[in-house]
Design brief:
With 304 residues, this protein is of the alpha/beta class. 34% of the residues lie in helices and 18% in strands.
Length: 304
Protein backbone atom coordinates (compact mmCIF):
# COMPACT_ATOMS: atom_id res chain seq x y z
CA UNK A 1 0.00 0.00 0.00
CA UNK A 2 1.18 3.55 -0.72
CA UNK A 3 2.70 5.72 1.98
CA UNK A 4 -0.09 7.24 4.02
CA UNK A 5 -1.01 10.89 4.39
CA UNK A 6 0.24 12.67 7.55
CA UNK A 7 -2.37 14.98 9.12
CA UNK A 8 -1.28 18.47 10.16
CA UNK A 9 -4.04 18.88 12.74
CA UNK A 10 -5.08 15.96 14.91
CA UNK A 11 -8.72 15.37 15.83
CA UNK A 12 -10.18 14.35 19.16
CA UNK A 13 -12.74 11.55 18.94
CA UNK A 14 -15.88 11.88 21.07
CA UNK A 15 -19.05 9.82 21.53
CA UNK A 16 -22.21 11.86 22.14
CA UNK A 17 -25.65 10.44 23.09
CA UNK A 18 -28.12 11.55 20.41
CA UNK A 19 -31.70 10.33 20.19
CA UNK A 20 -30.91 6.85 21.46
CA UNK A 21 -27.68 6.46 19.47
CA UNK A 22 -24.03 6.97 20.31
CA UNK A 23 -22.86 9.55 17.81
CA UNK A 24 -19.19 9.70 16.88
CA UNK A 25 -17.86 13.23 16.44
CA UNK A 26 -14.40 14.43 15.44
CA UNK A 27 -13.24 17.75 16.89
CA UNK A 28 -10.28 19.85 15.82
CA UNK A 29 -9.36 22.77 18.07
CA UNK A 30 -10.67 23.83 21.45
CA UNK A 31 -14.09 25.08 22.44
CA UNK A 32 -14.35 28.87 22.65
CA UNK A 33 -16.78 31.01 24.71
CA UNK A 34 -20.23 31.46 23.16
CA UNK A 35 -19.47 35.15 22.65
CA UNK A 36 -16.28 34.44 20.66
CA UNK A 37 -15.98 36.21 17.31
CA UNK A 38 -15.20 32.95 15.51
CA UNK A 39 -18.01 30.39 15.87
CA UNK A 40 -17.34 26.68 15.41
CA UNK A 41 -17.44 25.22 11.91
CA UNK A 42 -19.62 22.10 11.64
CA UNK A 43 -18.90 19.78 8.69
CA UNK A 44 -21.49 17.25 7.45
CA UNK A 45 -20.31 14.38 5.24
CA UNK A 46 -22.19 12.79 2.36
CA UNK A 47 -23.70 9.39 1.63
CA UNK A 48 -21.26 6.45 2.03
CA UNK A 49 -18.62 8.73 3.50
CA UNK A 50 -17.28 9.48 7.01
CA UNK A 51 -16.36 12.53 9.07
CA UNK A 52 -12.62 11.82 8.68
CA UNK A 53 -13.06 12.59 4.99
CA UNK A 54 -12.76 16.30 5.88
CA UNK A 55 -9.25 15.92 7.35
CA UNK A 56 -7.56 17.26 4.21
CA UNK A 57 -9.69 20.41 4.20
CA UNK A 58 -9.17 20.98 7.93
CA UNK A 59 -5.42 20.65 7.47
CA UNK A 60 -5.54 23.30 4.73
CA UNK A 61 -7.31 25.89 6.90
CA UNK A 62 -4.87 28.66 7.72
CA UNK A 63 -6.56 30.05 10.82
CA UNK A 64 -7.24 28.27 14.08
CA UNK A 65 -10.88 27.51 14.68
CA UNK A 66 -12.93 24.82 16.35
CA UNK A 67 -14.17 22.32 13.76
CA UNK A 68 -16.72 19.56 14.44
CA UNK A 69 -17.59 16.70 12.10
CA UNK A 70 -20.01 13.88 13.02
CA UNK A 71 -20.37 10.47 11.42
CA UNK A 72 -24.02 10.29 10.39
CA UNK A 73 -26.17 7.53 11.87
CA UNK A 74 -25.25 4.20 10.31
CA UNK A 75 -21.88 5.46 9.05
CA UNK A 76 -18.37 5.41 10.49
CA UNK A 77 -18.27 4.86 14.26
CA UNK A 78 -21.79 6.14 14.95
CA UNK A 79 -24.36 3.53 15.97
CA UNK A 80 -26.69 1.95 13.46
CA UNK A 81 -30.37 2.38 14.38
CA UNK A 82 -31.20 -1.18 13.18
CA UNK A 83 -33.94 0.24 10.97
CA UNK A 84 -35.23 -1.04 7.64
CA UNK A 85 -34.61 2.34 6.01
CA UNK A 86 -33.09 5.74 6.65
CA UNK A 87 -35.27 8.85 6.74
CA UNK A 88 -34.13 12.35 5.83
CA UNK A 89 -35.88 14.06 8.79
CA UNK A 90 -33.79 11.91 11.15
CA UNK A 91 -30.64 13.66 9.94
CA UNK A 92 -32.21 17.00 10.85
CA UNK A 93 -33.22 15.68 14.27
CA UNK A 94 -29.73 14.31 14.87
CA UNK A 95 -28.06 17.56 13.84
CA UNK A 96 -30.36 19.61 16.07
CA UNK A 97 -29.58 17.37 19.07
CA UNK A 98 -25.85 17.41 18.32
CA UNK A 99 -25.72 21.19 18.22
CA UNK A 100 -27.69 21.40 21.47
CA UNK A 101 -25.11 19.10 23.08
CA UNK A 102 -21.91 20.48 21.59
CA UNK A 103 -22.71 24.15 20.89
CA UNK A 104 -25.61 24.94 23.21
CA UNK A 105 -25.28 28.72 22.83
CA UNK A 106 -24.63 31.00 19.91
CA UNK A 107 -24.51 30.34 16.20
CA UNK A 108 -22.38 27.99 14.11
CA UNK A 109 -20.98 28.03 10.61
CA UNK A 110 -22.43 25.00 8.82
CA UNK A 111 -20.97 23.22 5.78
CA UNK A 112 -22.09 19.99 4.14
CA UNK A 113 -21.04 17.84 1.21
CA UNK A 114 -23.54 16.07 -1.07
CA UNK A 115 -26.18 14.51 1.21
CA UNK A 116 -24.71 16.57 4.05
CA UNK A 117 -25.17 19.70 1.94
CA UNK A 118 -28.84 18.84 1.48
CA UNK A 119 -29.25 18.42 5.24
CA UNK A 120 -27.43 21.71 5.87
CA UNK A 121 -29.73 23.59 3.48
CA UNK A 122 -32.90 22.26 5.14
CA UNK A 123 -31.58 22.83 8.65
CA UNK A 124 -30.55 26.42 7.86
CA UNK A 125 -34.11 27.09 6.70
CA UNK A 126 -35.88 25.62 9.74
CA UNK A 127 -33.33 26.85 12.31
CA UNK A 128 -32.15 30.14 10.74
CA UNK A 129 -31.18 31.66 14.10
CA UNK A 130 -28.62 28.88 14.66
CA UNK A 131 -26.60 29.43 11.47
CA UNK A 132 -24.22 32.35 10.90
CA UNK A 133 -22.86 31.25 7.51
CA UNK A 134 -23.74 28.30 5.30
CA UNK A 135 -21.61 26.34 2.80
CA UNK A 136 -23.01 23.76 0.39
CA UNK A 137 -20.50 21.52 -1.38
CA UNK A 138 -22.50 19.93 -4.18
CA UNK A 139 -25.66 19.13 -2.25
CA UNK A 140 -27.74 19.16 -5.42
CA UNK A 141 -30.94 17.72 -4.01
CA UNK A 142 -32.83 15.21 -6.14
CA UNK A 143 -34.88 15.13 -9.35
CA UNK A 144 -38.44 16.36 -8.98
CA UNK A 145 -41.12 13.71 -8.65
CA UNK A 146 -44.81 13.43 -9.52
CA UNK A 147 -47.59 12.12 -7.23
CA UNK A 148 -48.44 9.33 -9.68
CA UNK A 149 -44.98 7.83 -9.01
CA UNK A 150 -45.88 7.10 -5.38
CA UNK A 151 -47.57 3.66 -5.78
CA UNK A 152 -44.70 2.21 -7.78
CA UNK A 153 -42.15 3.65 -5.34
CA UNK A 154 -43.95 2.11 -2.37
CA UNK A 155 -44.18 -1.27 -4.11
CA UNK A 156 -40.45 -1.16 -4.89
CA UNK A 157 -39.68 -0.37 -1.25
CA UNK A 158 -41.82 -3.29 -0.07
CA UNK A 159 -40.01 -5.61 -2.49
CA UNK A 160 -36.59 -4.39 -1.33
CA UNK A 161 -37.53 -5.02 2.32
CA UNK A 162 -37.70 -8.73 1.48
CA UNK A 163 -34.19 -8.81 0.04
CA UNK A 164 -31.11 -9.23 2.28
CA UNK A 165 -28.55 -6.48 1.84
CA UNK A 166 -24.79 -6.50 2.26
CA UNK A 167 -21.73 -4.45 1.38
CA UNK A 168 -18.80 -6.15 -0.27
CA UNK A 169 -15.86 -6.88 2.11
CA UNK A 170 -12.22 -6.46 1.10
CA UNK A 171 -9.18 -8.66 1.77
CA UNK A 172 -6.88 -5.82 2.85
CA UNK A 173 -6.67 -2.11 3.53
CA UNK A 174 -4.83 -1.77 0.23
CA UNK A 175 -7.90 -3.17 -1.51
CA UNK A 176 -10.10 -0.64 0.33
CA UNK A 177 -7.81 2.17 -0.83
CA UNK A 178 -8.00 0.85 -4.38
CA UNK A 179 -11.81 0.94 -4.14
CA UNK A 180 -11.67 4.56 -3.02
CA UNK A 181 -9.49 5.45 -5.99
CA UNK A 182 -11.74 3.49 -8.34
CA UNK A 183 -14.67 5.58 -7.08
CA UNK A 184 -12.68 8.78 -7.57
CA UNK A 185 -9.56 8.53 -9.76
CA UNK A 186 -8.54 12.04 -8.67
CA UNK A 187 -7.99 10.86 -5.10
CA UNK A 188 -4.25 10.83 -4.35
CA UNK A 189 -2.94 7.36 -3.31
CA UNK A 190 -1.55 8.66 0.00
CA UNK A 191 -4.94 10.16 0.88
CA UNK A 192 -6.71 6.94 -0.08
CA UNK A 193 -4.31 4.97 2.13
CA UNK A 194 -5.05 7.29 5.06
CA UNK A 195 -8.82 7.16 4.53
CA UNK A 196 -9.02 3.37 4.19
CA UNK A 197 -8.93 2.49 7.94
CA UNK A 198 -11.49 5.23 8.63
CA UNK A 199 -13.76 3.90 5.91
CA UNK A 200 -13.48 0.20 6.83
CA UNK A 201 -12.80 -2.05 9.83
CA UNK A 202 -11.37 -5.54 10.18
CA UNK A 203 -13.79 -8.09 11.62
CA UNK A 204 -13.58 -11.63 12.93
CA UNK A 205 -13.56 -13.15 9.45
CA UNK A 206 -10.25 -11.37 8.75
CA UNK A 207 -11.83 -9.20 6.03
CA UNK A 208 -12.21 -5.43 5.94
CA UNK A 209 -15.84 -4.32 6.02
CA UNK A 210 -17.09 -0.85 5.13
CA UNK A 211 -18.32 1.19 8.08
CA UNK A 212 -21.76 1.69 6.63
CA UNK A 213 -25.15 0.10 7.20
CA UNK A 214 -26.29 -1.79 4.05
CA UNK A 215 -29.81 -0.47 4.72
CA UNK A 216 -28.62 2.85 3.26
CA UNK A 217 -28.92 1.18 -0.14
CA UNK A 218 -32.70 0.76 0.10
CA UNK A 219 -34.85 3.12 -1.88
CA UNK A 220 -36.70 5.76 0.12
CA UNK A 221 -40.46 5.15 -0.10
CA UNK A 222 -41.12 8.88 0.22
CA UNK A 223 -40.98 10.95 -2.94
CA UNK A 224 -38.66 13.97 -3.09
CA UNK A 225 -41.06 16.90 -3.12
CA UNK A 226 -39.08 19.80 -4.56
CA UNK A 227 -41.63 22.51 -3.75
CA UNK A 228 -41.48 21.68 -0.04
CA UNK A 229 -37.68 21.86 0.01
CA UNK A 230 -37.67 25.17 -1.85
CA UNK A 231 -40.08 26.68 0.68
CA UNK A 232 -37.50 25.78 3.33
CA UNK A 233 -34.63 27.22 1.29
CA UNK A 234 -36.49 30.54 1.02
CA UNK A 235 -36.23 30.88 4.81
CA UNK A 236 -32.42 30.59 4.91
CA UNK A 237 -31.18 33.77 6.60
CA UNK A 238 -27.45 33.03 6.48
CA UNK A 239 -25.31 33.94 3.48
CA UNK A 240 -24.71 30.81 1.39
CA UNK A 241 -21.52 29.78 -0.42
CA UNK A 242 -22.17 27.21 -3.16
CA UNK A 243 -19.04 25.28 -4.22
CA UNK A 244 -19.19 23.11 -7.33
CA UNK A 245 -16.59 20.94 -9.07
CA UNK A 246 -16.03 21.89 -12.69
CA UNK A 247 -15.82 18.21 -13.73
CA UNK A 248 -18.93 17.02 -11.89
CA UNK A 249 -21.28 15.24 -14.28
CA UNK A 250 -24.67 14.81 -12.62
CA UNK A 251 -25.98 13.04 -15.72
CA UNK A 252 -24.09 9.98 -14.40
CA UNK A 253 -26.61 9.82 -11.54
CA UNK A 254 -29.84 11.09 -13.08
CA UNK A 255 -29.45 11.14 -16.85
CA UNK A 256 -31.75 13.79 -18.31
CA UNK A 257 -34.15 13.77 -15.33
CA UNK A 258 -32.23 16.50 -13.53
CA UNK A 259 -29.66 18.97 -14.84
CA UNK A 260 -27.28 21.52 -13.36
CA UNK A 261 -29.32 24.29 -14.96
CA UNK A 262 -32.41 23.08 -13.11
CA UNK A 263 -30.49 23.04 -9.84
CA UNK A 264 -29.19 26.56 -10.36
CA UNK A 265 -32.76 27.71 -10.94
CA UNK A 266 -33.69 26.20 -7.57
CA UNK A 267 -30.72 27.85 -5.88
CA UNK A 268 -32.03 31.26 -6.95
CA UNK A 269 -34.72 31.11 -4.23
CA UNK A 270 -32.05 31.42 -1.49
CA UNK A 271 -31.84 35.11 -0.49
CA UNK A 272 -28.03 35.47 -0.40
CA UNK A 273 -25.90 33.19 -2.60
CA UNK A 274 -22.26 33.32 -3.63
CA UNK A 275 -21.35 30.73 -6.27
CA UNK A 276 -17.91 29.33 -7.03
CA UNK A 277 -16.79 26.79 -9.66
CA UNK A 278 -13.59 24.91 -8.75
CA UNK A 279 -11.31 23.75 -11.55
CA UNK A 280 -9.82 20.26 -11.85
CA UNK A 281 -12.19 18.52 -9.46
CA UNK A 282 -15.40 16.55 -9.47
CA UNK A 283 -18.05 15.67 -6.92
CA UNK A 284 -15.53 14.76 -4.18
CA UNK A 285 -14.09 18.25 -4.27
CA UNK A 286 -12.96 18.05 -0.62
CA UNK A 287 -10.66 15.19 -1.72
CA UNK A 288 -9.68 16.56 -5.13
CA UNK A 289 -8.87 20.16 -4.19
CA UNK A 290 -8.89 20.43 -0.37
CA UNK A 291 -6.63 23.49 -0.35
CA UNK A 292 -8.91 25.38 -2.75
CA UNK A 293 -12.01 24.31 -0.81
CA UNK A 294 -10.42 25.46 2.45
CA UNK A 295 -9.33 28.76 0.94
CA UNK A 296 -12.81 29.59 -0.35
CA UNK A 297 -14.56 28.48 2.85
CA UNK A 298 -12.18 30.42 5.07
CA UNK A 299 -12.43 33.59 3.02
CA UNK A 300 -16.22 33.32 3.08
CA UNK A 301 -16.41 32.69 6.83
CA UNK A 302 -13.95 35.42 7.75
CA UNK A 303 -15.51 38.10 5.57
CA UNK A 304 -16.92 41.03 7.57
Amino acid sequence: MSASYTPRRHAQSTLVPVRGLRYHVLQWGEAAPAAAATPPLVLLHGWMDVAASFQFVVDALRGERRVLAPDWRGFGLTDQPHADSYWFPDYLGDLDALLDALVPEGRVDLAGHSMGGNVAMSYAGVRPARIRRLVNLEGFGMPKTRPEQAPKRLAQWLDELKQPLSLRPYPSLAAVAERLIANNPRLAPERAAWLAPHWAERRGDGLWHLRGDPAHKRINPQLYRVDEHLETWKLIAAPLLWLEGEQTDIARWWGTRYTKDEFHERLAVVPQVERCLLADCGHMLHHDQPAAVARHIEAFLDRA
